[in-house]
Amino acid sequence: MTIENKIIDLNGRELLLRNATAEDAEMLLNYLKITGAETKFLIKEPEEITFTVEQEQEYIKNQNESENSIMILGFLDGEYVGNCALMGNRLFRFRHRVTMGIALYQKFTNMGIGRIMIEELIAIAKEKGFEQMELEVIAGNDRALHLYKSLGFEIYGTFPKNMKYKDGTYADAYWMMKEL
């Protein structure tokens, strides 16, 4: 899916939301490595980001051509802040459901950007006829949990030991859902 570029005033600063382009591929790969190192709440270690620029360009192309998935990039005053995405299902029995994900560079958290991006995803999901939006969140990610709950997501289940870290510790995850 694609969207029209959207500019939002964020306390006097310009937040641009737009689809990714092939030219963004290298930037996105670097972003994945950096954000993976900044927080334990994402699913990959930085060294697990092994896509080539060409593979990332193909991924971007597939996202933009998809009928049930979308990736939206955010730029604050021209600086890349992170992205959010919807991932739909092709199987008939799951077509009413869509999964969302979001990650921002840590220096751009607590500014309202995540809320704006998720609200945009919710609007797109409703417009496309999805009936529920789902996500997984690490149980200790209190800021994200607070944000998701404030947007109407509820916890419907727990995945014990969902992630295992290099130091041998584990993290549980919650499955959250919002009816649209």
Characterise this structure.
There is one protein chain. The chain is of the alpha+beta class and 180 residues long. The chain has four helices and eight strands. It has helices at 25-38, 53-65, 113-127, 142-150; strands spanning 6-10, 13-19, 69-76, 79-88, 97-104, 132-138, 154-164, 170-179. The longest helix is centred in the middle third of the chain and has 15 residues, at 113-127. The model has no long low-confidence stretch (mean pLDDT 95).
Please provide the count of β strands: 8
Secondary-structure element pattern, one letter each: EEHHEEEHEHEE
What would the average pLDDT be, to the nearest integer? 95
Measured as a percent range, the helix fraction is 25-40%
Largest sheet: 8 strands, mixed
Uncertain runs with pLDDT below 50, 5 residues or more?
A: none
Structure summarized in a few sentences:
With 180 residues, the chain is an alpha+beta fold. Helix content is 28%, strand content 37%.
Give the arrangement of secondary structure elements.
Layout: E1 6-10, E2 13-19, H1 25-38, H2 53-65, E3 69-76, E4 79-88, E5 97-104, H3 113-127, E6 132-138, H4 142-150, E7 154-164, E8 170-179
Parallel strand pairs: 5-6
Antiparallel strand pairs: 1-2, 2-3, 3-4, 4-5, 6-8, 7-8
Helix pairs in contact: 1-2
